[in-house]
From TrEMBL:
Residues 248-359 form the Capsular polysaccharide assembling protein CapF C-terminal domain. InterPro entries: CapF_C (IPR029303), Epimerase_deHydtase (IPR001509), Lipid_A_modif_metabolic_enz (IPR050177), NAD(P)-bd_dom_sf (IPR036291), RmlC-like_jellyroll (IPR014710), RmlC_Cupin_sf (IPR011051). Signal peptide: none annotated. Residues 5-181 form the NAD-dependent epimerase/dehydratase domain. It comes from Micromonospora halophytica. This is UDP-2-acetamido-2,6-beta-L-arabino-hexul-4-ose reductase. PANTHER family: BIFUNCTIONAL POLYMYXIN RESISTANCE PROTEIN ARNA, NAD(P)-BINDING DOMAIN-CONTAINING PROTEIN. Gene3D superfamilies: Jelly Rolls, NAD(P)-binding Rossmann-like Domain.
Amino acid sequence: MLRLAVTGAGGFLGWHVRVLIRALGWPEPIVISRADLADADTVAARIDGLDRVLHLAGVNRGEPADVAAGNVELAAALARGLRRCAAPPAAVVFANSVQAGNGTPYGDSKAVAAATLANVGLDLVDLRLPNLYGEHGRPYYNSVVATFCRQLAEGVRPEVHEDRELTLVHATDAAAALVAAPAAGPWDATMPGLRTGVRELAARLSGYAAVYDAGEIPPLTDRHAVRLFNTYRSHRFPTRRPSSLPRHADRRGELVEAVRAHGGQGQTFCSRTRPGVTRGEHFHLAKVERFVVLKGSAEISLRRIGHGDVVRFTVTGDRPVAVDMPTMWAHNITNTGSDDLLTLFWTNELFDPTRADTWPEPVERRAGTPAVTV
């Protein structure tokens, strides 16, 4: 269990790092803000005696001169604080880029930043990251995946102006490498990459969107398929409300099509919940999960990890709808009726108790728990 400090905690990668730390059950990391970095003594006080400092803060886009200066100065500011620290951390982990030293303002500034941190004299883990994607990425900034997903969520067809090869790594895998996470969950610190072209990526995400917009689950045949699909879903939620389900009625009664999955694993189970009882209070990092209330009435509540706002849906068995749990959102379901609640659950994977991908987290955030603003 490591005690960590993080710069750039409010960014895309920083949020994924904090979610992973929450899943691991480690102490909340010390957040070093850009305002903190302006004062070396403040930095020194905040990192004193910790195990690791993760330097994630950086400038990815903007005017070339601003990108170059920003990355260099952020590293220099952290270095000044490290030098003033009475009990400096055992290691500094730098979220570098595979573009480091490639002759561009961004790449060269990342190389200078790495050299600046290395000159402090502490153990430096210089992790060169490829293109990252994942839930809640910032479109037109973090990655082309985020851009395509947001466009599709808004009903816009992605346009490919330049087709090129990409190696994509999910942000949770990068987070696992940054914090040296044990192999105990759906993450992979070796950062397995997906090699794809931009045009192929646009077609793949468009296919997922077309199937999912029809209320169905696209083929989830490998880990990148699951994670790309979850990334797309993160850009739809909570704007898109629960999906209506096809219903067929005749003199015998009614039939509801709860799940139509186009490929991959899957498991279905049902629960009966007593009045007033709440199930859930956890989140998933990768698992796709669908709730369908078949009898009774309930409230489904969700909260994005590190944030305070709670999204609530009122559902009833009289008009069944599909409510899909977004990854990295704590969720629960409460029986709000006077009779037992019957709920159908579907997940995209077979349950493995040794790698359940179920991490305890109350939906109602505890007072005093820090929130992350992205």
